[in-house]
Amino acid sequence: MNPLVLSEVKIPLDLIRNISIIRNMSNYDFSPMATMTLDAEEQIRAYVNPTRMTILAYLSKEKLSVSRVAQLLKVHPANLTHHFKLLEKAGLIFLVEKRETGKNLEKLYRAAALQFVVDSENETTNKQVLGLTILRDNLNTSIQALKNQTEEKDVLALIKTVRIDQKDLQKFEKRLLDLANEFGSSASKKGEVYSLNISVYPTTAGDVPGQEISIRIDEDKK
């Protein structure tokens, strides 16, 4: 496996000029570019997240504050602060206006582009590592959200380690994809929002035969 190479975040020159203007003005009429191609790992990691993709969709249409986006998503603003910081650091959103609202300073943001495209042909990125890193980032975000929640919700966590033939692995991966599609097709306007995070990866278990580790955590149904 090739070593992971971290590439620098590439931001177009016109956006760099806009950043300079925005930092020195309380209000700037910023127009997002039509399409932005993401080829740096930091950009891709910031983008590939359901919540952040939703934030970008809102900010591509108009400038909004963290509080306003939180209202639209029906979540506490504290759950979105981390997402906004990551998007801004990666150059996917920009601060375009500051408003005095009594005791508070309201900050409004816009997306850098109307549409984002991930460059899947970038050879400098170790795609296996990037894939697991994206899943880890999503789990870390969910962990922080659970710490801020006011009521307990069901959580299922399961880890198994087994030895498996390559041909059987491919069959199993297909079954997992089918399960993920079934999970997605069960979407409803009612109920809670849940994420399914699936990963299959080689471990350092070595040649120890018959090893299996299972961890299951969920709330008892009442």
Q: What attributes characterize this protein structure?
A:
222 residues; alpha+beta; Arc Repressor Mutant, subunit A; 2 domains; three-stranded antiparallel sheet; two-stranded parallel ribbon; 5 strands; 41% helix; 14% strand; globular; disordered N terminus
Number of domains: 2
| Percent strand | 5-15%
Q: Which strand order does the major sheet show?
A: 2-4-3
Order of helices and strands: HEHHEHHEEEHH
Q: Please state the oligomeric state of the protein chains shown.
A: single chain
Radius of gyration: 21 Å
Apparent shape: globular
N-C termini distance: 48 Å
Structure summary, number of beta strands? 5
Blueprint of the fold:
Blueprint: H1 13-23, E1 33-38, H2 41-47, H3 50-59, E2 64-65, H4 66-73, H5 78-89, E3 93-101, E4 104-111, E5 113-118, H6 127-148, H7 166-185
Parallel strand pairs: 1-5
Antiparallel strand pairs: 2-4, 3-4
TL;DR of this structure?
With 222 residues, this protein is of the alpha+beta class.
Task: Give a verbal description of the structure.
- With 222 residues, the protein is α+β, with helices and mostly antiparallel strands.
- The protein is 41% helix and 14% strand.
- The protein has helices spanning 13-23, 41-47, 50-59, 66-73, 78-89, 127-148, 166-185; strands at 33-38, 64-65, 93-101, 104-111, 113-118.
- A 3-stranded antiparallel beta sheet has the order 2-4-3. Strands 1-5 form a two-stranded parallel ribbon.
